[in-house]
Amino acid sequence: MTRDEAAIHGAIEELRRLTDVFQERRRRLATSCGITEQQWRVLEEIATEHFMPSMFARERESSAAAVSKVLRQLLDKGLVSVSVSPEDGRQRQYELTSAGKAVMKELRRRRKRAIAEIWCDLAPESIDAFTRFGRTLAERMEAYQEKDEA
User: Fold this and answer.
1) Which of 72, 94, 105, 135 is most buried by its number of CB atoms within 10 A?
2) Tally of helices (H runs) and strands (E runs) in the chain
3) Number of domains composing the chain
């Protein structure tokens, strides 16, 4: 393995490590508020007031049954409520209950605190460089994936 290959493999390993740490942090944050990551994602989407379970399932490459299961869990926890749409009786409207809003507020508070502690004392030029590199890497990976699937 050449020096360049070793450096590239080292960078890939750090990206994997960063991904793992980030995912574990999200999992712990959700758990600290009594929910799962999947429930957090659904709560976030419901908070936008444009939540459609079928569209959410498609965007997340998930099944409608899996999204329905999460919705039932959130209903059972009293974090969301559901009603029939006044415009279209075939559709249901989901909204956060006061308990759901409190969970989201606490998640945002804890997330903001973590961001402040982890990111805020980093040099702005380091953050800018990281952002540029991440964008370039993501674009290259997406382009490769499209080419590879063709």
Assistant:
1) 94
2) 6, 2
3) 1
- Separation in Å, CA 37 to CA 24, 58, 70, 123: 10, 18, 10, 30
How far apart are alpha carbons 1 and 105 in whole angstroms? 49
CATH of residue 26's domain is 1.10.10.10
Tokens of 78: 């009293």
Tell me if 22 is assigned to some domain.
yes
Q: What is the pLDDT of residues 70-128, one digit of tens each?
A: 999 999 999 999 988 777 777 788 999 999 999 999 999 999 999 999 999 999 999 99
CA distance linking residue 122 with residue 115, whole number of Å: 11
Handedness of CA 143, 145, 148, 150 (dihedral sign): negative
